[in-house]
Amino acid sequence: MKFIFLVLCASFMISGCQHPPTKSNFDPTGGDVGFKPPPVWNGSMQNLKAHLINLEPYIFDKSKFSAKENEEFIKNEMHELTIQASYVKHDPVVSTKDPTVKFVANQFAEELQQAGENFEDGWKEYSRSQLMKVTTFCVACHTRFRQGPEFKDSIHPTYVSSLSPRNQVELHVAFREFDKAFLLSANSLATDASTFTNETDMYAIALLGLQVAAQFQNDKEKANQLLRIIEKNKTAPTYLKLANERWKKSVSRWDPNQTFHQLSDIRSLINERQSEIDDMRALAALLTMLGDKVAENQLGETLFLTGQSYEFLGSASSLSLQDNYYEACVRKVPKTVWGRRCFDNLERSVHANYTGLLKLGLPKDVQKKMESLKKILN
Fold first, then answer.
1. Quick one: how far is CA 175 from the chain centroid?
2. Which of 222, 275, 286, 339 could potentially form a cystine with 246 if both were Cys, beta carbons 3.0 to 4.6 Å apart?
3. What pLDDT, on a 0 to 100 scale, did the predictor assign at position 299?
4. What is the pTM of this model?
5. What pLDDT is stored for residue 14 in this prediction?
6. Quick check: 315 and 350 in contact, CB under 8 A?
7. φ and ψ at 294, to 5 degrees?
């Protein structure tokens, strides 16, 4: 099942950018209709990987993505990705195990279709931001569960070494190369803060390293190791030092042997949070609970808490998926108090995402989606 999750996320991350994606039998009402398995997994995935490698340098480089001379190349690569992605279909077993999977898959397709349309309409930077957003969806799917393969022998394109340490850590996480991601995080946090081009990168790298330790590996000692490195680094900015004190409080009450089988225990962990580390640990438990088929009377709160924890992690995290879980909550339990609370949080989150575009208002596709969700509640 974990391999299917990887295939699902990789395929939707890079499909449908230029032309409308292949229609699926996705059921937004939450039914159990899934997708038929593809005739060949490996062949289509190898083709997807090849085209993704061709596009990645442009997605990560604003000037390359917007350059007039690269338009045809980018359009062609997007088109080829759409064709190859049509061979990758979702397994119905996964749909019934996790109530958010079909929604997330559909969201991939919608986001990428909009990215393609915006690229053609000249909104290239917005299109690029949508593609990068979808990349975070992929990372999230790859790291949903602690169990699963770690791709220790993955071969990365040569351009990866030219990326910032933060982007390199994110890519290692996406490939489930957790040990490499943690080592790079630790080494980066030990360097002089002045070497970072973006002053917020050091904080983001610390959070990524802590996610590896707390959410993905449940390793308290690794978390403590990062905290000691930050404490010893005399060049670390004040805000990072202050965050480190919060993280220490979370780690001090962390029992590595504690299991979260009851929703009430997870709720307590979130309500009594000292820092982001508590939400990282909560997410590991919540995603496992969703994967094990939550009781009907607990589904709404489980989705709400999952969205809340992703939201608390904020923009410094590569896994900010709160909108997806809030929307899934509205669709799955619209007539409950949790459906209403999820919609309220989603509405606030969506408007916050477009704060800089208030004069233009929300994009039409976003407005349409919010209006349709509001109707579901009534």
1. 13
2. 275
3. 93
4. 0.71
5. 32
6. no
7. -75, 150
Q: Which residue has the tokens 């995402």?
A: 353
Nearest to 6 by CA among 59, 57, 42: 42
Assigned token pair, 154: 């993955």
Place of tokens 């990758």: 88
For 106, 144, 229, 322, 370, the CA distances from 130, given in Å and listed in that order, are: 15, 21, 35, 16, 18
Separation between Cα atoms, residue 47 and residue 45, nearest integer Å: 5
pLDDT tens track for 21-69: 223 333 333 333 333 333 333 455 566 567 667 777 888 778 888 899 9
Determine contact, residues 94/34, Cβ cutoff 8 Å: yes
Q: Is 102 helix (H, G, I), strand (E, B) or coil?
A: helix
| Dihedral angle computed from the Cα positions of residues 273, 274, 280 and 286, in that order, rounded to the nearest 10 degrees | -10
pLDDT of residue 37: 35
CA distance 233 to 228: 9
What is the C-alpha separation between 344 and 330, in angstroms, rounded?
A: 10
Domains of the chain by residue range: 1-21+36-142, 162-283, 284-377
Q: Tens of pLDDT along 59-89?
A: 877 888 889 999 988 877 776 666 665 555 5
Helix 322-332 vs helix 296-313: crossing angle, to nearest 10: 160
Helical residues (DSSP H) of the chain, grouped into ranges: 2-13, 42-59, 62-66, 71-85, 92-97, 101-120, 124-142, 165-174, 178-189, 201-211, 220-232, 238-252, 263-271, 276-291, 296-313, 322-332, 337-353, 364-377
**∠ CA 244-245-247, rounded to 5°:** 60
Which two three-digit tokens encode residue 325? Answer: 């879980």
Could you tell me the two tokens for 269?
Answer: 């962990």
Average confidence (pLDDT) per 10 residues, the chain, 378 residues: 31 31 32 34 56 75 88 79 57 52 57 73 79 59 54 56 82 81 96 90 93 93 98 96 97 92 94 95 90 85 94 64 87 94 93 64 81 92
92, 101, 130, 303, 376 from 328: Cα distances, Å = 17, 9, 20, 7, 12
Place of tokens 């974990």: 2
